[in-house]
Amino acid sequence: MLEYDVVVVGSGPAGCMTAKYAAKEGVSTLIIEEDAEIGEPVQCAGLISKRAVEESELKSKSFINCELKGAIIHSHSHDVRIESPSPEKRAFAIGRSVFDKELAKEAQKEGADIILGSKVKRVKKRAGETKLTISTTGEEEIRASVVIGADGARSGVAKMAGMKVTKNFLNCVQVEGEYEMDEAFAEIFVGKTIAPGFFAWAIPINEDVARIGLCIDKRFSPHPNPLLFLKRNLSEHPVIARKYKGSSSNFTVGTIPIPVGAGLLRRRGRGQTVSVDKEGGLMLVGDAAAQVKPVTGGGVYYGMKCGKIAGEIAAKACLTGDMKVLNAYERRWRKEIGKEIAFGLKVHRLRCVISDKDFDTIFRTLSQDAVLQLIKRKGDMDYPSVVFREFLKHPRLIKLMAMNILKYLYTK
Ligand SMILES: Cc1cc2nc3c(=O)[nH]c(=O)nc-3n(C[C@H](O)[C@H](O)[C@H](O)COP(=O)(O)OP(=O)(O)OC[C@H]3O[C@@H](n4cnc5c(N)ncnc54)[C@H](O)[C@@H]3O)c2cc1C
Description:
Elements: E1 2-9, H1 13-24, E2 29-32, E3 47-49, H2 50-55, E4 64-68, E5 70-74, E6 79-83, E7 91-94, H3 96-109, E8 113-115, E9 119-126, E10 129-135, E11 139-149, H4 156-161, E12 169-179, E13 185-189, E14 200-204, E15 209-217, H5 226-236, H6 240-243, E16 244-257, E17 276-277, E18 282-284, H7 300-320, H8 327-353, H9 356-366, H10 369-378, H11 385-391, H12 395-409
Bound molecules: flavin-adenine dinucleotide.
């Protein structure tokens, strides 16, 4: 039987960063990945901030497809163009397959082992050690002091260990296709018929090709299948259909977890999910712990950030032999991003209940010069609450909130 101090299930950005930071502390570390190749299949639009590129600590930038100058947001009858004010605030379209492989190499350099093509099928919890059964050709057991589920949105580790995780997900779909681009601007499209409960996007990856996709929140959608909306956008949307030139490839479907928030009508903390089971020596990180931005669905930056904390704390628990140390994980990551997620959930709930006419009002307001300057100054794709809090002081948006308050309050 294989034995490790720390076993990380999943080799996405969160898993690789967790393993790198655990191995760095000197504990024996293993990553188990069910797919035969790291980074494949890709389920990501690959839009990340300059800050996230830095968080990856990767020296080679071979994973960058293209640097973006800003974003154009389209509502039903209004467009807002937001140009990045400085190189510091730029975003990048990245190739996740290369990115994840590079992150895995860094974990290996620190001493982590990787087993590919092996799925974790059972988790047996016991104080002091947890056993995983993995299946490759046959079945094999692995013993670990700490097991970390970095196994994505529908974490099997969390389910098998009986940990409470979110039940709400965005359903997403994406293709890469030829797309007419004026400049390297990401395009965002909002509207109930375009992507109910979320938004659609076109992210350029070079001069001729973009990732075109969308997510829906099926609780607010007349249909649970996002593909119907993608097909309609590609053939009928006034902007997407005009710019899309066909030749689709790399079709992908996926899910993004919506974290569980305290909610206005619920008591603080009630229903909140957990990312640590110290008795069983179990932790969750990345999408498995719903460490994503509810406003944009982005999880790469938060996953890496929380992975560093998870790896360090798991190693400390192994080195001291005290599993109570694991409790610090939940506290530390919530301190870093908990408030941002909680605020993002409120914005997400508002977006789900407002009408297309309300979106037009919002974007008309955003295109006022003073507001655009504010976005340029305070806009931050990793911490959007800063600028949203400022928007909510605008009289027109206060009125819009007041008109939607009942729908907002009674939305779960
Ligand atoms: C369509 C789409 C577009 C997105 N666009 C963006 C974006 O532009 N920017 C952004 O920041 N985020 C984006 N996201 C979210 C982002 O992809 C995730 O937040 C990120 O991949 C989470 O990383 P992770 O390491 O937690 O999990 P993942 O990257 O999902 O990795 C989990 C790994 O665990 C493995 N695994 C699962 N179960 C087992 C098992 N039982 N045994 C062994 N291995 C297992 C999987 O094979 C996988 O490799 C997007 C998501 C989707 C679906």
